[in-house]
Specification:
The protein has 158 residues and is an all-alpha fold. The chain is built from 10 helices and no strands. The chain has 3 domains: 56 residues, Orthogonal Bundle (Arc Repressor Mutant, subunit A), CATH 1.10.10; 37 residues; 56 residues.
């Protein structure tokens, strides 16, 4: 019986290595993938424990990568980042201890506004402000960040 479990763990590890070679994955996602693949709960637990011990699974490191992506590429605000991390299976204790200052969110919102203004030249200033405000809200930015970023642009830009 023990040899069978060891063989299953080796197969689970091999499958996990393939998944992790493609991109970083969180503990929750890896557990789901292994379970869906048909591995027994004990095998999944042992596999995940070994991967964590070897440093292949690190939810804190994954959260940092996801936050950087959310800020730089998706231009998310605090609320959207929180939702995004939870959807990726990041533990609430990590999500609640986000180490981001307001300037990170403001900088992300500025880059988004700058990018969007290039395509909004034909729209009058009031409508641009309204649309940009709505877009920033949908990306999870709070009211203070939106107000500050749109106020900075001045009426000639925004």
């Amino acid at each position: 019986m023990k040899n069978r479990d060891e063989g299953e763990i080796k197969r689970a590890l091999k499958y996990s290595y393939r998944l992790l070679a493609l991109r970083d994955r969180g503990q929750t996602e890896l557990i789901e993938r292994l379970t869906k693949r048909g591995f027994h709960r004990d095998v999944v637990e042992d596999t995940v424990r070994q991967l964590k011990d070897m440093g292949y699974i690190n939810d804190s490191r994954l959260a940092e990568t996801l936050i950087r992506t959310a800020l730089e590429q998706k231009h998310y605000g605090k609320y959207a980042i929180t939702t995004y991390l939870r959807s990726k299976g990041i533990d609430d204790s990590i999500v609640e201890n986000l180490d981001l200052c307001n300037e990170d969110y403001i900088s992300s919102a500025r880059r988004f506004v700058k990018k969007k203004l290039k395509t909004m030249k034909a729209i009058d200033a009031d409508e641009r402000v309204k649309r940009l405000s709505t877009m920033l809200q949908r990306r999870g930015h709070d009211f203070d960040t939106i107000r500050e970023v749109l106020k900075e642009g001045g009426s000639e830009d925004v």
